[in-house]
């Protein structure tokens, strides 16, 4: 049975290009537009709500400096807008967010760009502080998968309500 499964998996990989079957550990996208500062966070809007969509699916929406800057700009502008009553954050692709882009940090350290590392942490921790002190109702999309963790909105709601 194992040999049959192995053969099917190999056959499946042959159909796709080698690039699609191989996982990449690089934080640099093969698509230039994905890491464009204007495209790392997309915006969806409905009436009086806004949703920020992390748009780096090739790296499981890992947060980098440009993502943190864009999220901070959006959240501050939405907080000041009286027409917006609710804000949400979600990820594109199969992951909500893998957290900080550790590969990018590693490369900055390796290249001796410590100021870039400081800016990364300054930006992301400032955004986290903004989230913690945000005045409007906001939600992180809890239907997500990250490395080693799974959560669903229903499980989170049961936990919040004390049913778990």
TrEMBL record:
Annotated keywords: Hydrolase
Pathway named in the protein's UniProt entry: Amino-acid degradation; L-valine degradation
Entry superkingdom: Eukaryota
InterPro entries tied to this protein: ClpP/crotonase-like_dom_sf (IPR029045), ECH_dom (IPR045004), HIBYL-CoA-H (IPR032259)
SUPFAM superfamilies: ClpP/crotonase
GO terms (BP aspect): L-valine catabolic process
Protein name according to UniProt: 3-hydroxyisobutyryl-CoA hydrolase
Originating species: Escallonia herrerae
């Amino acid at each position: 049975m194992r040999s049959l499964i192995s053969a099917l998996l190999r056959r499946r990989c042959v159909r796709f290009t080698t690039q699609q079957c191989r996982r990449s550990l690089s934080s640099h996208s093969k698509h230039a537009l994905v890491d464009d500062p204007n495209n790392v966070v997309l915006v969806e809007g409905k009436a009086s709500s806004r949703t920020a969509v992390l748009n780096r699916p090739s790296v499981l929406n890992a947060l980098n400096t440009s993502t943190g800057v864009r999220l901070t700009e959006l959240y501050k502008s939405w907080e000041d807008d009286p027409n917006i009553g609710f804000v949400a954050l979600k990820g594109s692709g199969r992951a909500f967010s893998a957290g900080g882009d550790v590969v990018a940090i590693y490369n900055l350290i390796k290249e001796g760009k410590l100021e870039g590392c400081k800016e990364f942490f300054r930006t992301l921790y400032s955004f986290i502080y903004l989230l913690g002190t945000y005045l409007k109702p906001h939600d992180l999309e809890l239907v997500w998968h990250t490395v080693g963790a799974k959560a669903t909105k229903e499980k989170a709601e049961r936990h919040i309500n004390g049913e778990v």
